[in-house]
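Quick one: structure tokens for this chain, please?
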Amino acid sequence: MAVFPFNLKCSAVIIMVSALLVAVAFAIGHDAFYQSLNGKPVLNAQPIALLNSSLNVSDQQVYLSLGTLFAFLVKVFLGVSVSTVFDQFVWKSIQTQRTRIGIIDNLLSVLKNGFTVLNLQLWKRSPISMTLALICWLLPVVSMISPATLGVHLASFDEYTLKRIPRVDFTSARFATFVSGTFPASNQSTQEMWVSAYRDPTPETQRVVNSVATQGTILPIEPPALNSSWSVDFHGPAIACDKVNQSVTAYITQNVAQAINGSQDWPGKTYAEYSLTRYGYLSWAPVADNLMDSTPFVQNGSGTFTQRLNNLGPIPRDPEDGKPIYSTPEGPMIDRTPLSVFVAVFPHSMEIPKYNELPENVAAAVQNSTILRCTLHNASYQANLTYINGAQTIHMTDKTVLNVISYLHGVTNDGPDVSNTSFMQNPRVMESLSYQSIMDAFGKLLSGSISTNMTHYNYPEAGLEGNVVNSMKQTTNILSTTLMETEEMSIFPSIAGSESNPFTDYWEDRSVSPPRHFSRLSNALEELFQNITFSLMGSNMFQYVLSVCMRNLPSALNMYTRPNYTVQAVPSTNVTINSYRNVYVYTRSILWAAYGTALGVSALCVTAGILLYLSADGSYTTKFSTIFRVTQGAMVSIDLDMKDHSGLDPLPDHIANAQMTTGYNQDYPAKMSSTTPLGHPHREPAVSSQLLETTSDEGVHK
């Protein structure tokens, strides 16, 4: 006897509705479970290994298994719900009209044999039942799609922490080299006097300047983490490059023209009348802050012109005796005439002269010149540094040019007694000396000239007269820098590759020439110096290091080995460290597209089942008792032999083709034989009657 609630009249309705609700609950649970994992990192832990060390199962495998379990349970309960509805429609279709036994067989077995769904006769006989059967067979697709909505994706995580970042210590004495000496005490002081005179930039300073100029980019800076970013603001050197005014331009071009005119020579060759040295590029530093000392050439006593070789200037001197002026603890001597360097380009000097007369050729060589003066300043920088897998990106957000930086001969303690005579007591002096050494290295890179030698030939017998450019001479290091890619410097054919000849014209038509985008020389100079300033962060020598704490360390662990990020005097900076980890990614839309379709179709099926229940005033199951009761009133179109009662497969054709009408009919006798022909009353066989009459109630229950 069935137990509650399966012994109720509406048990089928209860099963189909409750199974649907349970499936909905598991679908919601599946969604909530995956949503709780969405965005969480994939751990390397092995939770099951706590139970058994040999079970190497990751948490990802566990979570996917649980998701598969949810999908399986949803599929199971939806299958129970839809299959229950299917039972109602199958029995209803069987009892409404005469049906071949083979059709009934296939209808009742369609949920066990999926190939039966392809039987077109079943679709013609009972389309609703077959549609429900097809839905039952398609429900497992849901359990295939929904677990796969949880995947793994590589995502970035930002961690904010205080870190020591590379910072340049411009107050250190590592940028410049000095020449020092001691002298007896003066009248104003009772202590021994010493003098430290500036000599040159250190090799490391020159190396950084040359490397940046050659590469054209900021040198690699070691970040606190491989993938990190931070903002930095600091004070450092900067240059401002502007064209000189008209009067200075006229004075300098006149000086260059005089030098060209003074370079004329008579080669002594046949038909060679004269030769000239013309200057296409010049760079020099002024000696003093006046027009006479700002020219590139100096005329000596013999009347010849020589180029100035100094890299730094103007150099302040005592107006009375002309001696160098040193910075003292009392007078740091800063913020005077700024250090500067001149850069001049004469484009017509690189062309073949058009004139035969000497004065015209000299005048043409200095026309349309570009003369820049770059002055040294202190500046404040604000920039964002970003590192992605080691790739460096520096974006400057603000740059403000501040006070000028003047030349310093050096420092001395000459003056009244002070408790501490170290020039480190005045950090501005040391900063100025550091800036000065960088400007000195920059000037060494630019200083010099690019010149050509021109010879004028005259051959009256052949009626030939003209000019020939013999050679180009370089005494500057600018040729190895990216400054050659500027608009002004593109006039030099051997470097810019713009010289025309038949072969290059022929070959360029059959090759790919890279596009040329030339910037202005003034902008390129400022940007190059800015890149040098930032590149100093990449040198270990210029970093803030421990000075007091490292005195007791072995000599091998000196302060030039690595940037020291543990210096307490250096403030920590908020650094964003970006790390990449595998995280769970849940595609919610796909899960609910699958579950929503399955639940929606199942809900329609349940609704149809409920309506059928109300119209039939009852429900059916596929239990044996249902089959037994239904077939008691069945009428079959043929008589069955005793061998047909075995029920063994396969089903004989004469039975499969037999017509059967099932269900209760009040016109029929109380007992009917399954072998009685259709439309004939039942005659009880002796054996059957004897079995029904002699079997006790106790035996039936057993």
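Residues 176-538 form one domain.
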